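Re: the pair you flagged

First of the two:
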Amino acid sequence: MTTTDTIKGKINEAEEMARKIWLAGLGAYGKSVEEAQGRYEKLSEEASKMFDELVTKGETLEDDAKSKFKSTTNDVENRVADVRKKLGLDSEPADQRIEELSAKIDALTEAVAKLAASK
């Protein structure tokens, strides 16, 4: 083997080593990109899952709130109905009952005034 062949061989080896170094760098870059994409996809999946869980929880709370609101509304309506019944507003026309109550209040007012005047 001649000196020229030896030099050419060394140059080829150096070029091959330089190429391998270049490829190793590209490989490292590619691997880091893949890992970053994997982490992003995992975070994206977790965020999506968490969002879905929050939506489900919100729906449950909304249903509970609607149920409680309806129950409370029914209780209030029942209490109003009881008061109306006790006042007799449901058994007769309301205007007539109000006039009767006003007349009773006027009579009581007169009775109290007479008692106060006699003292």
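Second of the two:
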Amino acid sequence: MNSSRPTRRRHLPTSPFPPPSAAPPVQQFEPSDQVTHDKYGLGRVVEVEAGGAVVVDFGSGKVRIPAPYAKLFKL
């Protein structure tokens, strides 16, 4: 079976093209940080788990969001 994920290509030193940019750093959240999410709206970080996931209280309920925190931004 073929994987649906694209493989990362190796950059050769003799290539005329610039090397790919490094991945952006993972955001760090602390309990009581105010955040916004594209789907859930405004919320407050309640818990930061050891695996990198955060639990956010959006008022209507608590949502666990795993890293890399898609659509979650610190205010």
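The mean pLDDT is 87.

-B.
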